[in-house]
Write a structure and sequence with these properties.
One of its GO terms (molecular function) is ATP binding. By secondary structure, the protein is an all-alpha fold. Helices cover 65% and strands 0% of the residues. The longest helix is centred in the C-terminal third of the chain and has 22 residues.
Length: 65
C-alpha cells in the first residue's frame, strides 16, 4: 500500500480533459453546446452529492485499512 496519497489534482485534470473532449466531440456531431454544458453541470452536481454521501474524514492510517 502507498504511504502517501495526492490531493486529487491529477485525477481532476484528467476528468476535466475527458469532459471537454467528449463535449467537443458531441458538438462536432451536431449537439447543442448549451445543452451539453447544462448536462455536464447536472452530472457534476449529482456526482458531488454521491461523493459527499460516500466520503468520510480520515484522521490516520487506521481509518483507511
Amino acid at each position: 500500500m502507498n504511504d502517501m496519497a495526492g490531493d486529487g489534482t491529477t485525477t481532476a485534470i484528467i476528468l476535466a480533459r475527458e469532459m471537454i473532449k467528449t463535449g467537443m466531440l458531441a458538438v462536432t456531431f451536431g449537439a447543442n453546446p448549451v445543452l451539453v454544458k447544462k448536462g455536464m453541470e447536472m452530472t457534476v452536481k449529482e456526482l458531488v452529492k454521491v461523493l459527499k454521501k460516500n466520503s468520510f474524514p480520515v484522521k490516520g492510517k487506521d481509518d483507511i485499512k
